[in-house]
Specification:
- The protein is an alpha+beta fold and 714 residues long.
- The chain has five domains: 3-54, Helix hairpin bin (Helix Hairpins, Orthogonal Bundle), CATH 1.10.287.610; 74-324, D-amino Acid Aminotransferase, Chain A, domain 1; 329-435, OB fold (Dihydrolipoamide Acetyltransferase, E2P) (Beta Barrel); 513-635, DNA polymerase, domain 1; 645-711, Rossmann fold (3-Layer(aba) Sandwich), CATH 3.40.50.
- It contains 26 helices and 26 strands.
- Strands 13, 14, 15, 16, 17 and 18 form a six-stranded antiparallel β-sheet that branches. The chain has a five-stranded mixed β-sheet with strand order 2-12-11-3-10. A five-stranded antiparallel β-sheet has the order 7-5-4-8-9.
- A hairpin with a 4-residue loop joins β4 and β5 (134-142).
- α17 crosses α18.
- The longest helix has 24 residues, at 3-26.
- The model is unreliable at 63-70 and 554-564 (pLDDT under 50).
């Protein structure tokens, strides 16, 4: 980025970060997530590092927190409050260790105290020595700008876990003041109770906002009614030195056992930052089950002498790091907007983005869904956008940061023609999606073939996007069924396909010819027939069953060239593609709609697909190549769970999760991933997550494996 562009971008970033900081720290509002604020700050840090002469004293990177609003009295901290530098990757932690080793001038084995990073409001508690070694609580301050904070003594005094005094005995050099740092938070259950009493407009978005708003109340009675709690984790250096505390672990034990302040029990001493990665992943999986919000871990060098040797920068200690969960939201710049053709002809606009780390992966593309969504968001090329992963899988744009929009950005006009075949696009009445009506559209054909070979369909390894493009370009395949007729000689004409690779891909195609019926139906790419719907169709329709003898080659691996390949005969309960077509054609739309979990939309889509003659030809071509669909074993199980929705949590005594899901589906039930009022049962094993708790809150029956088997009549 040229200096003039960098200067403009820095100015915009500084202005936006200060605006968001004031909203977050002072007004207790969250216009955007903390991930977004972090992302903007990291971008500003990178630009200032690249152009150090553009760094100014008023930059958000040079000061902690945000200006105070003056509503509450401002008081100077006993010692300045530092912030923690964030890490999101293990490699960043490893770089931190190397930086410390360089600063110390030696490689030394270091222990680290690993704590949970509580997502609450940072508070400092000041205790002053009285007579007879008694320390009395004097005041509580917010972090503020790090030098001075707001006096919130009146509300923090209402937190029952915060002692108003304690006795410190048998200490030679008892300091006059003890300043204890910690995090005030609101438990998740308390937030739910609080929000239930508020109007929709007044409700708090998250426990952190609720805690901050409660602590800053002028009336302590309001704060006292909100069940605030606190975890403490720090002590001012002068006091720790006077008390001859040698390690961070010893400091935490002093806080817990002597001062009697609340300390989180999940702290652990670790010997390597790789252990922190294991703990982070463990808590990522169970963070929803915790009664409070966390946003990662905090690592501190355990030895306090080493802490003193390392010291601090102007903003943060060199001996500590916050190790945060992969961001759920991040910012990126839109480099381009392109149209993508789906297997059913649906046109999806896609934002091409500057590479951005999101939830542990590098994101360069994000869906914009449709023309209406582009217009609603007003996304433009050059914009800075907020990204999140929908269901932690697909990146999507959720907001445009208009304050960072370049002057040259122009509104995006949705094209009138298909990007793959130039056919004029249509938008069916009542739909949000534009479609290409050309049944021979090259883009849609490519997508249909890629879908057929994908993991949850025929799962044919070795047939990636580029290989399929080359097969089409050479005229070796016209439709998805042609995949099954490809020979080793066909692959030999492709670039980079040598003997071993050809052997592997032809073997993968041969093995894929006998596929479970639900995967076969999903592979056809029928609109509205996803994996779950395909499974319902496979299990609820009375398919004609036939025993078929097939031969399958058994490879001896590297020794196959010496011993050859053995052929084994297998008996399958299978159905031919033409019989699938015949069965579906005989069913009326009303009969299909009556199947629990199907409904009229899916039924109509199936009927429309079967009316197309080319689809019958496709199925016949697959049959001619030897493709068969195997029938699910539980197709004829009694449908004792019809209409019932189950959610699974924890580890069951004898059944695996997949076995339990299969039993539910075999007996007519559905499996959902989240608990709601529509859930009929939560099947619970040992070490359940937050789903069991939510079920109890909603009054949903929670059953164990024994009760589940009784429902099945076992």
């Amino acid at each position: 980025m040229q200096k003039k562009q960098a200067q403009e971008r820095i100015a915009k970033l500084k202005q936006e970060i200060w605006r968001l900081n004031r909203a977050y720290f002072i007004e207790d509002k969250s216009p955007v997530s903390e991930d977004v604020r972090d992302a903007l700050k990291q971008e500003l840090i990178a630009l200032e590092k690249e152009h150090p002469d553009l760094t100014t004293p008023d930059s958000p990177t040079q000061r902690v927190g945000a200006p105070l609003d003056g509503r509450l009295p401002k008081v100077r901290h006993l010692t300045p409050k530092e912030s923690l530098q964030d890490c999101f990757l293990l490699s960043e932690l490893e770089d931190w260790v190397e930086q410390m080793e360089r600063a110390l001038g030696e490689k030394k084995a270091m222990e680290y105290l690993c704590e949970l990073k509580i997502d609450g409001l940072n508070i400092s508690l000041l205790y002053r020595k009285q007579k007879e070694d008694t320390y009395r609580f004097m005041r509580a301050l917010t972090r503020g700008n790090g030098i001075e904070g707001e006096d919130v003594t009146h509300t923090v005094r209402t937190i029952e876990s915060v002692p108003l005094s304690f006795v410190l005995t048998k200490r030679k050099h008892a300091p006059e003041f003890l300043e204890i740092s910690g995090e005030v938070y609101l438990p998740k259950a308390a937030l739910n109770k609080l929000n239930a009493k508020l109007s929709k407009e007044e409700q708090f978005a998250n426990p952190r906002n609720a805690a901050a708003g409660s602590v800053r109340q002028l009336d302590p009675k309001i704060a006292a009614s909100r069940e605030l709690q606190m975890f403490c984790y720090g002590l001012n250096r002068e006091a720790a030195d006077a008390l001859e505390i040698a390690t961070q672990e010893e400091l935490m034990l002093f806080l817990r056992d002597t001062a009697g302040v609340p300390v989180n029990r999940e702290m652990r001493l670790i010997k390597d930052v790789k252990e922190a990665q294991v703990r982070l992943e463990s808590f990522r999986k169970k963070r929803d089950a915790l009664p409070y919000d966390i946003d990662g871990l905090v690592l501190k060098v355990n030895d306090r002498k080493t802490q003193r040797d390392l010291g601090s920068t102007a903003k943060a200690p060199r001996w500590a790091r916050a190790y945060k969960f992969p961001a759920e939201q991040k910012t990126a710049q839109v480099l381009d907007i392109r149209l993508q053709v789906g297997r059913t002809g649906a046109i999806t606009p896609v934002a091409i983005l500057s590479p951005t780390q999101l939830a542990g992966t590098t994101v360069t593309r994000a869906t914009l869904h449709n023309a209406d969504e582009i217009e609603r968001l007003d996304v433009r090329i050059g914009d800075t956008v907020i990204l999140q992963k929908a269901g932690d899988i697909i990146p999507e744009v959720v907001e445009v940061m208009e304050n960072l929009r370049p002057k040259s950005a122009k509104p995006f006009r949705f094209p009138a023609r298909c990007p793959a075949c130039s056919t004029e696009l249509v938008r069916p009445e009542g739909e949000a999606v534009h479609r290409c009506p050309n049944r021979s559209c090259a883009g849609a054909r490519q997508e249909r073939i890629e879908h057929l070979v994908s993991r949850y369909a025929f799962n044919i390894e070795g047939l990636g996007k580029e290989t399929i493009e080359e097969l089409i370009a050479q005229g070796l395949i016209v439709d998805a069924a042609d995949i099954f007729a490809l020979s080793p000689e066909d692959f030999a004409t492709l670039p980079l396909f040598k003997e071993k690779k050809i052997e592997n891909v032809t073997e993968a195609i041969e093995n894929a010819k006998h596929v479970p019926l639900e995967r076969f139906l999903f592979a056809l790419g029928i609109r509205h027939v996803g994996r779950e719907t395909a499974e319902i169709l496979a299990r609820r329709i009375a398919w004609p069953s036939a025993k078929r003898m097939v031969k399958r080659a058994i490879s001896h691996g590297p020794q196959s060239s010496l011993f050859g390949e053995e052929e084994r005969s297998l008996t399958l309960h299978a159905i031919a593609p033409s019989a699938i077509a015949e069965t579906l054609v005989k069913l009326s739309q009303e009969e299909l709609s009556a199947i629990d979990g199907i409904g009229p939309v899916v039924a109509e889509s199936l009927m429309t697909w079967m009316e197309e003659k080319s689809h019958h030809a496709l199925l016949q071509k697959m049959e001619d190549a030897g493709v068969l669909a195997t029938l699910p074993e539980g197709s004829h199980a009694p449908q004792t769970l019809t209409g019932k929705t189950f959610v699974l949590t924890g580890t069951l005594p004898t059944l695996s999760r997949e076995e339990a899901k299969a039993l539910i589906k075999d007996h007519g039930g559905r499996v959902s991933s989240s608990v709601s009022k529509q859930t009929d049962y939560v099947l619970c094993g040992t070490d359940p997550g937050s789903k069991a708790q939510k079920a109890e809150e909603l009054g949903v029956p929670v059953i164990e494996e024994e009760g589940f088997l009784r429902l099945l009549g076992r």
